[in-house]
TrEMBL record:
The gene is nad5. Keywords: Electron transport, Membrane, Mitochondrion, Mitochondrion inner membrane, NAD, Respiratory chain, Translocase, Transmembrane, Transmembrane helix, Transport, Ubiquinone. One of its GO terms (biological process) is ATP synthesis coupled electron transport. It catalyses: a ubiquinone + NADH + 5 H(+)(in) = a ubiquinol + NAD(+) + 4 H(+)(out). It comes from Thorea hispida. PANTHER family: NADH-UBIQUINONE OXIDOREDUCTASE CHAIN 5. The lineage of its organism: Eukaryota, Rhodophyta, Florideophyceae, Nemaliophycidae, Thoreales. This is NADH-ubiquinone oxidoreductase chain 5.
């Protein structure tokens, strides 16, 4: 059963990709959806056996690499953390496959699209089920490759090409850091297997490494390298710029990347290595600060976006910041709980946005929409459910995880540096709630309530999506309403043993009991900030013509330019490295200079000169040919048949050669 969970998406990808020419569009859709739905049911059975029955599954398939002390196998680890990720990945992927049947029906390359979706799912399953770092890295790189193929699915579009390359290159930074962490872990632990690493971590608390003359704690070095890898994949502040540009792919791709697969890989990595991260206070501090800044950045930037999908993309960036904050607060189970909830309501938001775009003929600018509540009432209801769940409205799914992260952030203190970083992060993520409410209600107002700005031709043809598109949305809406309540006690309930040994939290870092006694005003603060954000969004958009605050224009311009992160990358990284070093120095000096002169330019030139020189010996006179023959025989006798030539007769031999030449010419 466990192997089928891994193999079925691969079979679906190969069958749809290689056999799509013969089975056609509907055949590839049927095969892909059937395989993914079956995989989802098997994942649910795995959750029952591993999570509820407490029977973890670990098996070795075959040997893989054996070189000295490095020994690796193709092995799979199915603990509670893995099976929960399996359910998220396979469930969302199945719904995206079903949704794509009608969404992509007019595209001539549906088999290729279904193949890429299944390939994406397969590599993500490899990533979460691996029992060692190298196998996990294989899935990590495979997810990056599949994301490039999906973002660049419409490869005739220049923006799609640029966005796919940008996503691939920015993720190279995180991947390079992750590869360095794997090497460091093997150097320290002499193994890359999770079981050995996690069980031996307490014995290396006093180990240190030296880097550029500085002494660094070994576990801190390893965890920071892992964190940089997570920053690239989960789009934390600094390496986040690829995330909004990934919207150039089809909308089902956006839902799959942002809801359940690629962007959650970095969060999963930090949760998986909780056994190591817990022993590095500096890493916990960095996780919390970067996560809080990312949450605030994503929320503020989303306010000033006009593209429907990019608003939701920056929302994803903000929610990933909440998950990273939870990891920094040593609340890995809460982070995983929010990841689980986020998968449902974020997939709902993206697929609902796709339904809107599909209904109004691929228009994505919210300023050109309006009054769609009259034409798409069901889509409006589903979008409303997703938005309220995102904001953590009481008793919806997002409320149980998001608000609990905020309550926990009031309690943590970084004692080593005498800084209350938990309180600092708390105010940042509370401020992010205000802006999250602002952009969510701004989206609802501009798309559904505002005066219509669509052409008459579009308005006459607007209609609700087909059943195959609406059924996944209804299922996701139900999960977005009830799933948090149903799984709260299981995932983060006090005394719950659901996670077992898959998540490790030091006793002194646990604050779950104290969070229950947080002041009531602090518990209600997120709700009041949500109301303030909603009212501010309504009045600022409803009376935008009457409101003019000139002193805010510089700030609005700054936030509208995404905090100038792209400008900073271009001026301080791209131009100095790519232009000055790569082009001016390496390309011109090495490629165009040394390599070309010593290889493809010099060799043909000298061959031509040598050939012209040899042509001059072809005189057509028999006396010259006799001379060359005798001269060749003489050299053969002197150099080959006379060994003493190499030892003592060098001078005499040269003299004899000169004499022979003189005799011949005379």
């Amino acid at each position: 059963m466990y192997l089928l969970i891994i193999v079925l998406p691969l079979f679906s990808s190969l069958f749809s990709g290689l056999g799509g020419r013969w089975i056609g569009s509907y055949g590839s859709c049927l095969v892909s959806c059937s395989c993914l739905i079956l995989t989802t049911f098997l994942s649910v059975f795995a959750v029952y056996e591993v999570g509820f029955s407490g029977s973890s599954c670990y098996f070795i398939l075959m040997p893989w690499i054996e070189s000295g002390t490095l020994k690796m196998n193709w092995g799979f680890l199915f603990d509670t953390l893995t099976v929960v990720m399996l359910v998220i990945i396979t469930a969302i992927s199945s719904l995206v496959h079903i949704y794509s049947i009608n969404y992509m029906e007019n595209d001539p390359h549906i088999p290729r699209f279904m193949s890429y979706l299944s390939l994406f799912t397969f590599f993500m399953l490899i990533l979460v089920s691996a029992d060692n770092l190298v196998q996990m890295f294989l899935g990590w790189e495979g997810v990056g490759l599949a994301s490039y193929l999906l973002i660049n699915f419409w490869y005739t579009r220049l923006n799609a090409n640029q966005s796919a390359i940008k996503a691939l290159l920015i993720n190279r930074i995180g991947d390079y850091s992750l590869s360095l962490s794997i090497v460091s872990i093997f150097f320290l632990f002499k193994s890359v297997d999770y079981g050995i690493i996690f069980s031996c971590t307490p014995f290396f608390l006093s180990q240190a490494v030296y880097f550029l003359g500085f002494e660094i704690h070994s576990l801190t070095w390893i965890t920071l390298l892992l964190f940089v890898g997570a920053v690239g994949k989960s789009a934390q502040l600094g390496l986040h710029t690829w995330l909004p540009d990934a919207m150039e792919g089809p909308t089902p791709v956006s839902a799959l990347i942002h809801a359940a697969t690629m962007v959650t890989a970095g969060i999963f990595l930090m949760i998986r290595f909780s056994h190591v991260v817990e022993y590095s206070p500096l890493c916990l501090f960095v996780l919390t600060i970067v996560g809080a800044l990312t949450a605030l950045f994503g929320a503020i930037t989303g306010v000033f976006q006009n593209d429907l999908k990019k608003v939701i993309a920056y929302s994803t960036c903000s929610q990933l910041g909440y998950m990273m904050v939870a990891c920094g607060l040593s609340c890995y189970n809460v982070s995983m709980f929010h990841l689980f909830n986020h998968a449902f309501f974020k997939a709902l938001l993206f697929l609902t946005a796709g339904s809107i775009i599909h209904a109004i003929f691929d228009e994505q600018d919210m300023r050109r929409m309006g009054s769609l509540i009259k034409f798409l009432p069901l889509t409006y209801s589903l979008m409303l459910v997703g938005s309220f769940t995102l904001l953590g409205f009481p008793f919806l799914t997002g409320f149980y995880s998001k608000d609990f992260i905020i309550e926990l952030s009031w309690l943590t203190t970084y004692k080593n540096l005498y800084l209350s970083y938990g309180l600092f992060s708390c105010w940042l993520i509370n401020l992010a709630i205000f802006f999250s409410s602002f952009y969510s209600f701004r989206l609802l107002y501009l798309v559904f309530i505002n005066n219509a700005n669509l052409s008459k031709v579009v308005v006459k043809n607007i209609a609700e999506s087909s059943t195959s598109m609406l059924l996944p949305l209804v299922f996701l809406a139900i999960c977005s309403i009830f799933m948090g309540y149903l799984t709260k006690d299981l995932f983060i309930g006090f005394g719950s043993s659901f996670w077992g040994a898959s998540i490790f939290i030091l006793t002194e870092h646990s604050n779950f009991i104290e969070a229950e006694w947080t002041l009531l005003t602090k518990k209600w603060l997120p709700f009041f900030l949500t109301l303030c954000g909603a009212l501010t969004a309504y009045f600022s958009n409803r009376f935008s013509n009457k409101i003019s605050v000139k002193w805010l224009h510089p700030f609005i311009f700054f936030f509208n330019k995404k905090w100038y992160w792209d400008k900073l990358f271009n001026n301080f990284i791209l131009i100095p490295l790519a232009v000055n070093i790569s082009y001016e120095s390496l390309l011109k000096t090495l490629d165009k200079g040394l390599v070309e002169l010593s290889g493809p330019y010099i060799v043909p030139k000298y061959i031509l000169d040598w050939s012209n020189l040899l042509i001059r010996f072809q005189t057509g006179q028999i006396t010259h040919y006799v001379f060359f023959i005798i001269f060749g025989v003489f050299l053969f006798c002197v150099f080959i048949l006379n060994p003493s030539f190499y030892l003592v007769g060098i001078f005499d031999s040269y003299l004899s050669v000169v004499c022979l030449l003189l005799l011949l010419f005379l």
